[in-house]
Design brief:
Strands 6, 7, 8, 9, 10, 11, 12, 13, 14 and 15 form a 10-stranded mixed sheet that branches. By secondary structure, this protein is an alpha+beta fold. The chain is globular and about 70 Å long. The chain folds into 2 domains: about 1-110, Alpha-Beta Plaits; about 115-415, Class I glutamine amidotransferase (GATase) domain (Rossmann fold, 3-Layer(aba) Sandwich). Helix 2 (about 35-50) packs parallel to helix 13. It is built from 13 helices and 17 strands. This is Asparagine synthetase B.
């Protein structure tokens, strides 16, 4: 009996030794086998935060992640409900070798450092309940990726230099308080006016222009900018209209420059040109900002179609290939104050990564040493009801391909950047 027990113990020890030697890497699949795509990004970010590298396997099983095995990573995956597979060093090497095949549109990009993330949002200074529905705030929280909040004052003080990645909520950088459907409360407006007066600006529009210019400087200096909905549109409008008054008297007490449209300087913008400003329908009435917005004049039109991601070369066009990693290439369209971008308004220097039948939805560009991505629409899984937006419960959408695009952008600055050739 003792010999039998000893044999079983020896067998168990041998099995454990073999298992430990075999499980030298963890593969986090991002195809249909993944139980929670969105939280998988949070795992990747945490590994980077713990000073470990993550290999992003472009076009392999939906853009999977591969990292060195540790019990901590395994436990974290189990706790967060993220699917993973333990693989041997030999298997990991085989996967990397497969992805290096020049005949396959695949690649390995090593992520090395967790980006310092900030979100520009009025929730920093007030309730701003509409903006609590911001898709980036929602998905960063759900994926358990840490971030900080900033607003106009922090940017005016020069705090952007401390960070790597900046998201702009659905802001109005023209100083017209959103121009739509009671989006900003009296308290929200007063908070902006107070900051403007504190820093010596006569108007909120002047302060917002200064903020817009500092955001552009942050990007040109090597930062990464991600903006959704009206933020990208109004940022470029503000930059193009520098020195001009395009703000109606109902917002700032004086009239607009009658020749403002002819004086716009499109050389100052990041993504858009050849656009026409929209007339205003009155304070707290609905109006779009310009014909950059492909649904201009049609209010909050609920999109019912789909847009398609482009299939970039993972070896030659590494950056857009990273930003388009997904388990689905056809994605449900979604609405917003700026739903999508009119094709004729998108500069030739902007790279279109996703487009619908008549508009561009997802675009990328470079300025100086930095990069930016603009993504049309308010919330990839959002719906409208009762006159106001309700926060999306991402527990109901753990596989959202539209939200995955946001998280691709979050991880992008952690890569060794390679300039695209397209």
């Amino acid at each position: 009996m003792k010999q039998y027990v000893s044999f079983l113990l020896l067998l168990l020890v041998s099995f454990c030794a073999v298992t430990l030697s075999w499980a030298n890497a963890i593969l986090i699949p991002m195809d249909d086998q993944q139980t929670n795509h969105l939280k998988a990004y949070g795992i990747a970010y945490k590994i980077l935060k713990d000073d470990q590298d993550v290999d992003w396997l472009l076009n392999y099983r939906g853009g999977s992640f591969l990292t060195k095995y540790s019990t901590a990573v395994e436990t974290e995956c189990r706790v967060r409900g993220v699917s993973f597979e333990t693989v041997s060093d030999a298997k990991a090497a085989s996967i990397r070798q497969q992805l290096s095949d020049p005949d396959l549109n695949m690649n390995v990009v090593t992520l090395q450092k967790a980006a310092k993330i900030i979100v520009y949002s009025p929730v920093k200074v007030g309730p701003a309940e509409f903006e609590n529905t911001d898709a980036v705030l929602l998905v960063l929280t759900y994926a358990e990726i840490p971030f900080e909040l900033v607003y106009d004052e922090e940017i005016l003080k020069g705090d952007l230099a401390k960070y790597d990645w900046l998201h702009l909520h659905h802001e109005d950088f023209t100083g017209q308080y959103g121009r739509n459907m009671h989006r900003q409360s009296v308290a929200d407006i007063k908070a902006q006016e107070d900051i403007a007066h504190k820093y010596g600006f006569a108007k909120v529009s002047q302060m917002k222009l200064s903020v817009a210019k500092k955001i552009k400087e942050f990007c040109a200096g090597g930062g990464y900018l991600f903006a959704m909905c009206s933020a990208g549109e109004t940022l470029d409008i503000a930059l193009a209209a520098e020195g001009l008054d395009i703000v109606g008297s109902q917002y700032d007490g004086d009239g607009v420059d009658a020749d403002a449209q002819q004086k716009l300087d499109f050389t100052k913008t990041l993504a858009f040109g050849n656009f026409t400003l929209e007339a205003d329908n009155g304070y707290r009435g609905f109006s779009t900002f310009s014909d950059i917005n492909s649904s201009a004049g049609r209010s909050y039109e609920q999109s019912s179609g789909f847009f398609e991601l482009f299939n970039f070369s993972a070896k030659w066009d590494v950056i857009p290939a990273m930003l388009c990693q997904n388990h689905e290439s056809i994605i449900k369209e979604f609405f917003g104050q700026t739903t999508a971008f009119r094709k004729g308004a998108v500069k030739p220097s902007s790279l279109v990564m996703g487009e619908g039948k008549s508009s561009d939805r997802y675009i990328y560009g470079e300025v100086g040493r930095g990069q930016w991505t603009f993504y049309g629409g308010h919330d990839p899984e959002g719906s409208r009801g009762g006159g106001f937006r309700n926060p999306t419960d991402l527990k109901l959408h753990p596989h959202s391909p539209g939200y995955r695009l946001i998280l691709n952008n979050v991880l992008f600055p952690s890569a060794r950047k390679k300039k695209r050739k397209t």
